[in-house]
Each structure stands twice: as structure tokens, then as C-alpha cells.
Structures
1.
Amino acid sequence: MDNLILLVLGLFISALGIINIKGNISTIHSYNRRKVKEEDVPKYGKAVGTGALIIGVSLVLGYIALFWSEEAMAFIILPAVVVGLGFMLYGQFKYNGGIF
């Protein structure tokens, strides 16, 4: 039960990812979405939301993997965080013109 925060954080990040994928990007900081054109909002939301969903799901799976092995958790979460951040950075650079 010490790692319950991992589950809660994973569910929260997954929910934010789903919200962004559906086109609502209001949960993303205003300076990160400032230069996104109106016609690119759905594409931007899908890119950033997919990254968040990948990270959130990996945290939930990491929590489940803790029941068997702590080492397995690292093999689930670390690659997923790299891939998820890749999706987010892709969306930031392509549709916002940079990180800020």
C-alpha cells in the first residue's frame, strides 16, 4: 500500500491524456499551447494526450507489477516515460514551435 500514490498518479495522468486526446487542451499550461493554431488544436491534443496516456498507463502497470517484482516496474515505466515524452515533445515542437 506504500505505492498507492503510483496508482493514483497513473490514473490521474491517464485521465488527463484522454481529455487531451478528445480535443480539450485546456489542461495544458497556457504558455505551452499559446502558439498552437486553431486548426491544429485536435492534432496537438492527440499528440500530447497520447504521450500522457502512455505515461499514465505505464504507472498503473508498474503498480500492478510491484506485486510480483520491483525490478519489473523499472522495465515497464522507464521506456514508457521516454516514449510518452517523445510524443509530447513532438507535439510541442510541431504545433507550438518549441517548448515554450
2.
Amino acid sequence: MPKMKSNRGATKRFRTTGTGKIVRAHASKSHLLTGKSTKRMRVLRGGTLVDKSDVKRIRVLAPYI
């Protein structure tokens, strides 16, 4: 049986925690940064868990992450 191919874009955007949950980066970090407060940027810097309704779709795109 051949290996499944991962969607390369999804593989670069998501990673897993030690318990198997999927982590994503926050949005709103690429442009128009001068209008955003330091506190807001600090919060956006960290990752957050993917919603459980989207986990199945991401597992199909990137089965090996």
C-alpha cells in the first residue's frame, strides 16, 4: 500500500501537541500592524487549538502531522 500524500500547505500551517490536538497560528499578523496594540500583538503571537469541528478536515489534508 503506498503512502498517502499530505497537503503541503496544511502541513506547514498546523502542528500537533503532545496529546494529539492540532495547533494553529492566530490570524491578523501580516499587515496593518501599526494600528494594533502591543497587548493584542502579544496575544496573537502564541498559537491556539483548532476547533473540534475542523479537526477531521485537517486530518484528511495532513494525515501525518
